[in-house]
């Protein structure tokens, strides 16, 4: 039965869910069907939290009076709405209680399935057709009308004929996809097909994430690609040939295997065993409000909605109730906002606290209740309604002491923590007195926070000065909030509920570090937090490693707007509280942040924000130590079904993260020309060259109409992005999935490489291409630098090297080259390249694939052993708890029975003997329980010892195996290095010998040329000098001849002589013929050397007289002497 409280109607209906689980249908008796998108369901309730009919007419129609049992157990209330404020309730009543319970559980399971909110493109199209054609011919006609096709009565299409394949064909003709043909042809398609090898290359190079480890996530092999093609290619004859068509590739791109987010990122996959301070926690501010801060209405339903949305920290502004019942209320103090009952809020929290996430919930109390009686009521409500879920006593492993970290979310599963001012005073009256006497001097408070308290009085004084939201400063600045009154002093009843989240007034980072109390936390208004972040960013990050910090909006945000949470996530702030009633860009980022990790409300902070030995500056522009920066490239190709209007559309890109990573409106495509069905942009990609901290960065893709009207968007964390060609389904501003609107993009995400190392990475990624390019460049340079004669020289056999002790041969001109010296290697002699082959370090050997694979195997084995023992331990603890409870209950029953037998009289008092017997019975029972606990502890200890020895044995085996593998890898590495070193040495020797031979030839040529030039110069100089001396001597002789002529003329005889005077011949006469005057000093014939030769003046005289010319030869040997 479906009933409506406003219309006072009751309608018998049939409630169904389609086979795909997309929509909830209800059909009345007239066969009229209505449907509801299951992903829009926020909650499905049964029991006391359901809406119950209040009017008598409705109760009569539902026959409430004749029902057996409670009516709320048969009621089913479905909560739906576009956001957390505008809520709609659908009310049903089942015939049996079990039906209502089953429907509520199954519907909530379907609605909270994260995969249904992250559908692939094919599922979206399938869901669209189910929605349009789910009922009858009328819906078919409506769908055809939307598609501008004939929809008259005679033109209807039978539903059974409109098959999914026909639907896809209809879409392909309605919205042609030329960009897919371009993608197809870019992969080297020959004709209309892609081969198996081409498809494998497409998947491995385009669709695979290069950041993945190739051992854990190996590239696809052709055989695997063939299996994949069989899922999407319908033409079996082409499959046998190893081919796939464009249609098959299109089906592959819209399949589950190509979602932009890996499904495992949606599951709870992060480690939840770290302290609470190591997580970002989804937090709400003034949770009760549905609108503005001054005049908005308050609602209990808001607590349910934020809990169902994954929020783990809600705020309760508690005030004293003014009614006669003296029930505390929740409202925004000193404003016109409405009030809601505190007890109803606690009940709503208890109902929905762990429906979406099992991890702990923090209730942030802003307690203005100055009535001890009403505070006691608040404490009692928390105890009674939350029951065992309320954490009252600290865990034994984590006492409230300095230096002890907070427990982990895993250890606090199913627990509710109270954040309220804690008092150590024995009574409320004393507390009020202490409140009036507390100091106002800030220096006193600073000293109390800096020095370690040594007595309860010091702790009391310090805690009295604490304030959650710094409300004592609200009179100084409107940013602090709207409340004008300090929080009330906590009574003993409320103080006992506070443990790991104790608010304290913040004084300085140094004081907090010195005190080192992880269980104390501070709240900062956004302006104050921004000031700390600006002045002391590194200290703020260090503070958040140990303690919790809560950030809340400033008081001037009376419209419930939100600040940008990314600012404080960058500093590691855990509780970044936002106004959930306002779904603006800040809230959209928050929803996108906590959508992952199973929507648990907890996100693990990056490692450097958790480790004490790492320091991080949120304003750093360089790469963070231990974090690999990313390069993100996004190309917007096209859009599908962005709007049903004939309007132009465009797409914008934003990047949120560290200040150095944030880029607002980094890309805006051109506006399509009146085409919103299938616009194609295919513009140049936008490149985010260096994303310093990808783990905190998010990419936002938003589509708008040409007038700026919002169509849809999607926020994706950078670490979760899958590279390649992807369809990105858009969502509305409430983060609800839109079925048809999508954007087709090409994304590249890879590790950032500085420009200086780009060539190195290119060489490593494609070594063959790199080597070929180097060889090509070397050949081109060789053609330019080749000298004349070098080719001929290189063809001749190389001459043998001369020995050092050989004497050089004389030169061709007969000159000696000088004394022989011992040859030395000149400084410019080519030396071999100093290639030092460094041995691989142990750390490098451990990074080898074989060792990494072995370590991962060991890790899996150890994890299985730990998991197995953990399971045994849980089972044993569960069994022990059951036995202990049974024994305790049995003892209690026997105690009560014995008590009844010993009581007598009207007062039902016990006799002394009965009291002693009862006391002895209780002591025996306690002894039995103590023995049982000791036995159980012994069993747990034995199980732990068994686990210890199992792990020890397994670790010993792992060490042995790892050492063997490491030895093998080391020997192989060393052998490879020796071989490589020998090859390098041989090559260097060969190159060196060639260079030396070439240098020797050049030296010989150079030396010969120098000697020849020197000799020629000397010869020319000597020749010139000889010529000058010879000319001078020639002139002297000619002068002598001229002087000799007059002398000879004087000696001529005046008279003829007798001939007989010649008859007496003497030796002189023989030597000197007659009529010849003897040469002066004839008897002392002097031979004057001429140029080192025996030429006399007589001979020259004779030569001149006879007019004969005598040539003088030059004796080289005499010249050299």
From TrEMBL:
GO cellular component, one term: nuclear speck
Record keywords: Calcium, Coiled coil, Hydrolase, Lipid degradation, Lipid metabolism, Metal-binding, Phosphoprotein, Transducer
SMART domains named among the record's database cross-references: C2, PLCXc, PLCYc
Biased composition (Basic and acidic residues): 473-489
Alphabetical GO biological process terms: G protein-coupled receptor signaling pathway; lipid catabolic process; memory; phosphatidylinositol metabolic process; phosphatidylinositol-mediated signaling; release of sequestered calcium ion into cytosol
Enzyme Commission number, as recorded: 3.1.4.11
Note on how the cofactor is bound: Binds 1 Ca(2+) ion per subunit.
Domain named C2: residues: 610-738
Ranges for domain PI-PLC Y-box: 494-610
Feature: compositional bias, Low complexity: 817-833
Comp. bias regions, Basic residues: 423-433
Biased composition (Acidic residues): 460-472
Alphabetized PROSITE patterns for the sequence: C2, PIPLC_X_DOMAIN, PIPLC_Y_DOMAIN
GO molecular function: calcium ion binding; calmodulin binding; phosphatidylinositol-4,5-bisphosphate phospholipase C activity
Stated name of the protein: 1-phosphatidylinositol 4,5-bisphosphate phosphodiesterase
Organism annotation: Salmo trutta (Brown trout)
Origin organism lineage: Eukaryota, Metazoa, Chordata, Craniata, Vertebrata
Gene designation: LOC115172491
């Amino acid at each position: 039965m479906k009933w409506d409280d406003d219309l006072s109607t009751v309608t018998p209906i049939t409630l169904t869910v389609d086979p795909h689980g997309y929509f909830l249908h209800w059909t009345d008796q007239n066969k009229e069907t209505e449907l509801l998108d299951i992903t829009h369901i926020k909650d499905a309730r049964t029991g006391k939290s359901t809406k119950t009919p209040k009017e008598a007419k409705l109760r009569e129609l539902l026959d409430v009076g004749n029902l057996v049992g409670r009516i709320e157990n048969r009621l089913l209330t479905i909560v739906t709405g576009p956001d957390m404020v505008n809520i709609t309730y659908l009310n049903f009543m089942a015939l049996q209680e079990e039906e209502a319970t089953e429907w509520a559980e199954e519907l909530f399971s379907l609605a909270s399935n994260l995969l249904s909110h992250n559908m692939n493109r094919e599922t979206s199209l399938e869901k669209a057709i189910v929605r349009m054609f789910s009922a009858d011919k009328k819906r078919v006609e409506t769908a055809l009308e939307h598609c501008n096709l004939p929809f008259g009565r005679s033109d209807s299409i039978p539903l059974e004929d409109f098959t999914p394949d026909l639907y896809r064909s209809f879409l392909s003709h309605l919205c042609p996809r030329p960009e897919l043909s371009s993608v197809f042809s870019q992969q080297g398609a020959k004709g209309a097909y892609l081969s198996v090898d081409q498809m494998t290359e497409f998947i491995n190079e385009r669709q695979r994430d290069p950041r993945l480890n190739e051992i854990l996530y190996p590239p696809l092999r052709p055989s695997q690609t063939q299996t994949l093609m069989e899922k999407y290619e319908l033409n079996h004859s082409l499959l046998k040939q190893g081919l796939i068509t464009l249609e098959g590739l299109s089906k592959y791109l819209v399949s589950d295997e190509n979602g932009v987010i890996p499904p495992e990122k949606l599951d709870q996959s992060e480690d939840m065993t770290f302290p609470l301070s190591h997580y970002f926690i989804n937090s709400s501010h003034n949770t009760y409000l549905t609108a503005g801060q001054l005049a908005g209405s308050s609602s209990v339903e808001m607590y349910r909605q934020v809990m169902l949305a994954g929020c783990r920290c809600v705020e309760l502004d508690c005030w004293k109730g003014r009614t006669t019942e003296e029930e505390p209320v929740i409202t925004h103090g000193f404003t016109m906002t409405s009030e809601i009952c505190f007890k109803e809020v606690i009940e709503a929290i208890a109902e929905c606290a762990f429906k979406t996430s099992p991890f702990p919930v923090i209730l942030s109390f802003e307690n203005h209740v100055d009535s001890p009686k009403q505070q006691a009521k608040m404490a009692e409500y928390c105890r009674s309604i939350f029951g065992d879920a309320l954490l009252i006593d600290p865990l034994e492993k984590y006492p409230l002491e300095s230096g002890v970290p907070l427990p982990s979310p895993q250890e606090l599963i199913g627990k509710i923590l109270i954040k309220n001012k804690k008092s150590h005073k024995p009574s409320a009256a004393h507390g009020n007195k202490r409140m009036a006497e507390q100091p106002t001097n800030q220096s006193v408070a600073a000293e109390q926070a800096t020095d370690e308290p040594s007595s309860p009085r010091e702790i009391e004084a310090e805690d009295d000065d604490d304030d959650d939201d710094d409300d004592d400063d609200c009179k100084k600045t409107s940013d602090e909030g709207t409340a004008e009154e300090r929080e009330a002093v906590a009574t003993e009843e409320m103080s006992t509920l506070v443990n790991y989240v104790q608010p304290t007034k913040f004084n300085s980072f140094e004081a907090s570090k010195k005190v080192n109390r992880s269980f104390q936390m501070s709240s900062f208004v956004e302006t104050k937090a921004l000031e700390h972040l600006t002045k002391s960013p590194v200290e703020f990050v260090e503070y958040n490693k140990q303690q919790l910090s809560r950030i809340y909006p400033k008081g001037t945000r009376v419209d419930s707007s939100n600040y940008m949470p990314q600012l404080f996530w960058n500093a590691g702030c855990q509780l970044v509280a936002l106004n959930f009633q306002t779904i603006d860009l800040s809230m959209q980022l928050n929803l996108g942040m906590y959508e992952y990790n199973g929507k648990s409300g907890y996100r693990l902070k990056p490692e450097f924000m958790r480790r004490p030995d790492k320091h991080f500056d949120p304003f750093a522009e360089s790469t963070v130590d231990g974090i690999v920066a990313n390069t993100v490239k996004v190309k917007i190709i096209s859009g599908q079904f962005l709007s049903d209007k004939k309007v132009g559309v465009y797409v914008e890109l934003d990047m949120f993260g560290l200040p150095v990573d944030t880029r607002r409106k980094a890309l805006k495509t051109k506006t399509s020309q009146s085409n919103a069905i299938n616009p194609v942009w295919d513009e140049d990609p936008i490149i985010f060259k260096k994303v310093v901290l990808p783990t905190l960065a998010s990419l936002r893709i938003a589509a708008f109409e040409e007038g700026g009207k919002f169509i849809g968007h999607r926020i994706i964390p950078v670490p979760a992005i899958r590279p390649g060609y992807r369809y990105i389904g858009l969502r509305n501003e409430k983060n609800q999935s839109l079925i048809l609107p999508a954007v087709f993009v090409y994304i590249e995400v890879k590790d950032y490489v500085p420009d200086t190392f780009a060539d190195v990475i290119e060489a490593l990624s494609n070594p063959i291409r790199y080597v070929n390019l180097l060889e090509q460049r070397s050949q081109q340079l060789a053609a330019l630098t080749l000298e004349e004669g070098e080719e001929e020289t290189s063809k001749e056999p190389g001459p043998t090297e001369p020995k050092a002790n050989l004497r050089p041969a004389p030169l061709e001109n007969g000159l000696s080259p000088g004394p022989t010296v011992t040859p030395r290697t000149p400084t410019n002699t080519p030396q071999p390249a100093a290639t030092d082959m460094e041995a691989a370090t142990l750390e490098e050997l451990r990074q080898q694939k074989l060792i990494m694979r072995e370590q991962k195997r060991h890790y899996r084995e150890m994890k299985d052993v730990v998991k197995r023992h953990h399971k045994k331990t849980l089972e044993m603890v569960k069994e022990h708890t059951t036995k202990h409870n049974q024994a305790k209950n049995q003892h209690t029953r026997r105690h009560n029975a014995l008590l009844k037998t010993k009581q007598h009289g009207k007062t039902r008092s016990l006799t002394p003997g009965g009291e002693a017997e009862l006391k002895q019975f209780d002591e025996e029972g306690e002894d039995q329980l103590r023995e049982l606990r000791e036995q159980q502890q012994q069993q747990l200890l034995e199980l732990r010892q068994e686990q210890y020895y199992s792990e020890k044995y397994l670790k010993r085996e792992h060490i042995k195996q790892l050492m063997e593998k490491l030895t093998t890898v080391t020997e192989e590495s060393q052998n490879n290095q020796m071989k490589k070193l020998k090859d390098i040495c041989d090559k260097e020797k060969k190159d060196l010998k060639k260079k030396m031979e070439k240098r020797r030839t050049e030296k010989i040529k150079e030396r010969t040329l120098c000697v020849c030039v020197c000799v020629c110069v000397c010869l020319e100089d000597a020749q010139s000098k000889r010529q000058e001396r010879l000319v001078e001597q020639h002139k002297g002789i000619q002068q002598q001849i001229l002087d000799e002529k007059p002398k000879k003329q004087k000696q001529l005889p005046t008279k003829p002589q007798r001939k007989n005077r010649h008859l007496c011949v003497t030796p002189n006469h023989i030597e000197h013929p007659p009529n010849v005057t003897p040469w002066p000093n004839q008897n002392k014939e002097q031979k004057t050397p001429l140029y080192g030769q025996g030429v006399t003046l007589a001979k020259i005289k004779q030569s001149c007289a006879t007019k004969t010319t005598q040539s003088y030869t030059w004796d080289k040997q005499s010249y050299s002497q």
